Amino acid sequence: MTAVQETASAAEWRSTACILCECNCGIEVRLGGEDGRRFERIRGDKAHPASKGYTCEKALRLDHYQNGRSGRILNPLRRRPDGTFEEIDWDTAIAEVAARLRAVQEAAGPEVGGKSIFYYGGGGQGNHLGGGYGNALLRAVGGRFRSSALAQEKTGEFWVNHQMLGAMVRADFDHTEVAVFVGKNPWQSHGIPHARTTLKEIARDPGRSLVVIDPRRTETAELADFHLQVRPGTDAWLLTAMAGVIVQEGLVARQWLAEHAADVEETLEALAAVPVAEYCARSGVSQSLVRAAARRIAGATGGVAVFEDLGVQMNRHSTLVSWLEKLLWVLTGNFGKPGAVYSPSSLVDITAGGKVRGTTPVAGMPLISGLVPCNVIAEEILTDHPARYRAMIVESANPAHSLADSKRFREALEALDLVVVIDVAMTETARLAHYVLPASTQYEKWEATFFNFEFPRNVFHLRAPLLEAPDGPLPEPEIHARLVEALGAVTQEDLAPLQEAAKHSRAAFAMAFFAAVGANPKLGAVAPVVLYRTLGPTLPDGAAAASVLWAAAHKCAQAHPESVGRAGFTGEGHEAGEQLFEAILSSPSGVVITDDEYDESWRRLKTADGRIHVTIPELLAELRGLATEPAAPEPDWPFVLSAGERRSFTANTIMRDPTWRKRDPAGALRVSPGDADRLGLIDGGRARLSTRKGTGVVTVEIDDSMQDGHLALPNGLGLFSLSDNGGPMVTGLAPNELTDAAARDPFAGTPWHKHVPARLEPLAEDPPDAA
Ligand code: SF4
After folding, report:
1. Are 499 and 531 in contact (CB under 8 A)?
2. Comparing C-alpha atoms, which of 429, 484, 418, 367 is closest to residue 121?
3. For residues 235 and 474, what is the distance between their CA atoms, to the nearest angstrom?
């Protein structure tokens, strides 16, 4: 137990964070129950610099994560030939996994070697520290290919950002005059700090406007001044029409573009020729509403803030839509000023700049941000190509459930020579692994999120453990360190001088560390583990896992010296970085790491000339192609299914205990009243939902927020958990039993989960189990 825990009494409120969405709101937890491990009370942490006491209802149910019926694993498991698992000790597990990774390298031959070992994951929401150490493991085996959920959600947008700005962007909804949400329902999916408060403030203020583009009348759309209820999958035509209105009605910020942008004219010419009325009709939104919304955006003097999310990022033309979304604020001059779009600082840049870093070995898809598109992973395995992936390390992720076409993904996992899963619970992926290595929960170890995008004051929150882990599970950094050592990638001989230097002083350590990794690139490749084993033991309260943040803090101080200085971290040389690191270590509710001025965003652009580059030739060609793209109705599949809707009680697959859901226990399929009437469906009744890839039985919820022809199934359902008698049970239908990996964006490879052709049939009586 750490000193932090020893000094905390059971009745004390302790600071940590909610782990159920990217906001990672600060919370305080009071432990209780017979064993002192229950999350007896939970409240928002007012001292958290970003969330300031705000939470939604999900955070209050976190005891179900820590203590729920999740199927927790307490010892390393090895799969027997008959598919069952046996417990083994850690030494055996580490030695065998390392040996089998080496065997995979050898089987792949000298040319491919460790590049046949694929790494997936690196952290759920708020669980990113381990991922830093996972990189070291991948390098230790000579691996190159990796992926995570970002490559089925965000890489299209990352690529567009890279092409246009060379930088990541977010938007200032706190101060904006016009807030625009494209395929996003922040009331449920959050994504911005204190989302519901902000939405209500905008809706209440007659001088501000809320524009929502969504096929459903969501909770956010209910508050909107302009709800553009787009026909599912036609966002590209709608956004093109909006940009067309801005150009054709002379609403472009020409002077601003002349000062700040490049490659403008070709895009303006294309938009000048857009048939606005025809595209509005195609998208199902009235031309007058489209024109009114476009004029409101162009006329704003107090900034326009835009946020696109999975409703369009997992939909047809997703990368094109990301570009069109950005044209709305670029053509109207809304960057780098209050209430507009900005470029945040970062402690760790999860986007890796959005650059393409090569291609995948089998499908030849671009590695945007260095990530393999999730939708091609199975085809990179199920082949006899010599460079195929032969082994997979999965950390804090559940690709067998969360990636498209689960059936095929399971086949891919079964075809691998080795699958190692590092996780808290026996997930759908862990069930297919050769080895399962149990991890501490997010509240039993030092942890942090790298989703830090606030502005002007960006925040980082390192969380101390609330509880001691039970015997057995280990934090991911320790698991990675043991594997890296077992692989021989770092030795005690390498570490000893650095351990001595770390005991002496931080300055001595810095000198010794940079000299050592400079002299020995192999050591540099596993630098996180080197830091963990050398600097780590000198950190207070057992915070060794935070050692990777030492390097990140220095990098941040070098990259953003003025912003870090305004946040209070100053001094010569490495001093500001050291101060920042110490502040991170000693701030249980999080700390402001950078304090920006609005024009800082301009200095973060990484284009060669510091301007925003408007035209992306590949996407301009796709935009022109919209004019001739046929509507292609599918008579056998009359519905469009949104597979994976965010609701009050959904949270990816982190929450495995079904009783955490206070509402919607079965994860019902939302159907419009018109469709229900036509098909003879009743509220709460059963229906058979089919797609080209699968069939399942669903509970129907008749919902007048849905438009005819559109269905919505929540995410995170269909998970194994434990029933009252301890046996396995599954609740609801897993969306990816119905999705198709081939249905994906041509640029980024991101899936079209929000546009799955589907069929729905009523079930007259109790059905057999879902097929
Ligand atoms: S918005 Fe809700 S789900 Fe997201 S981190 Fe905050 S409390 Fe958790």
Report:
1. no
2. 429
3. 45
